[in-house]
C-alpha cells in the first residue's frame, strides 16, 4: 500500500510562495497528474514529496507515516526527471543497477530485477550500450527502468517525456499507461501537456500560483470546470467565454449580451442560474461554451430559433477529422468545431446556435462556476 497525503503544505522561497496551503490525498495505486502554467508550483510540490525540498509548513505522509524529517533515500519513492540524468560512462545495465548496488542489494537480486525491468521496457538487447549510443526514447526508458528496479512505493515523474519529439512522446505515453496498468504503483506525474494529463491521469490536479484550482477526473474537469481558469486551461482550442447578463423571462432564464448573443439556458444549469439571479435582473456573468457545443448544422440551427446568432466566418482551419472555424458575432469572437465536410469559406455569413444544454456559467466577479 502506498498512499500519499498532504496536509496544509506550504513552501516558500524567500517571499515567493511556490506551494500555498495544499491538502490532497493520492490514493494507493492512483495515477495523479499535476498540471498548470509555468511557475505554478508543480515541480516544487513533487520535490517536496520526494524530500528534495523542505516543507515550510504542513505535513506530508506516505502510508500514514509522517515523512517531513525523513531523508529522500528513506522515503521509498523513485523520481524520474525530464533530463534522464543517466551516468554517461556506465552501460545501460549498470545505470539500472546503480541504485540497488548503492543500497547493497545482493548481486543475484540486482540481476533479476534489472533483467525483468529491461524485459518490461524492451531494453534487453541494449543492456551493454552506453547512453550516448541510445536514442532519446531509449534513454528515457532506461531512466524509467532505473526507477522501476527499485520497486518503490511511489513514482514521482517530472515532465519525463518533454525532451522527446512529438511522435516518440505519443508512443512513450502509451507505454507509461501500460506500465502503470501492469505495476499499479502510485504515481504522481507533472506535465504541462494537457493531452498527457487527460490520457494518463486517473485524476488531475490543476494548479495556479501555488494553489489548487480543481482536483477531478479528466472527464469532470472537462465537463464541470470549477472556474474560468480551469475552463480555459483544459480543452484545446479553449472554451469560448462571453461576458453578458442573466435575465428571467417568465419561466425561462436567458443569457444575453448588449448585442449579437441571446440564448436560453436549459437543463439543470437553468435551475442554478435562476437561484443565482436572486431576484435581480441583469446579473453579470460569463457564459462558457466549448467549440463543439456551438451548433453549425443548418437543420439543427433552424430548429433552434431561440439560441441563434448570426456569425461571420473569419478563418477556416481544416484538421482532417474536424474543422475549426474562427467566427465573429458582433463584438464577440468564437471558435467553432464543425464537420470537415461542411462547405464554408472565410467571409461567409453563418447562422449558428448555442447548445443550451451544454453551457457553462461563471460569476463575473469571482469567476467561479455557477452550478
Ligand atoms: P515549470 O512548469 O516552468 O517547471 P512549475 O509549475 O514546476 O513550473 P516550480 O518550478 O515549482 O513551477 O516553481 C514555482 C515557483 O517557485 C516559481 O515562482 C519559481 O520561480 C519558484 N522557485 C522554484 N524553485 C525555487 C528556488 N530554489 N529558489 C527560489 N525560487 C524558486
Automatic annotation (TrEMBL):
Residues of the ABC transporter domain: 4-234
SMART domains in alphabetical order: AAA (SM00382)
Entry keywords, A to Z: ATP-binding, Nucleotide-binding, Transport
Family matches, as CDD domains: ABC_MalK_N (cd03301)
Keyword Transmembrane included in the entry's annotation: no
GO molecular function ontology, one term from the record: ATP binding
InterPro entries registered for this protein in UniProt: AAA+_ATPase, ABC_transporter-like_ATP-bd, ABC_transporter-like_CS, ABC_transpr_MalK-like, ABC_transpr_MalK/UgpC-like, Mo/tungstate-bd_C_term_dom, NA-bd_OB-fold, OB_MalK-like
Pfam families cross-referenced by the UniProt entry: ABC_tran, OB_MalK, TOBE
Protein name per the record: ABC transporter ATP-binding protein
Source organism per UniProt: Thermaerobacter composti
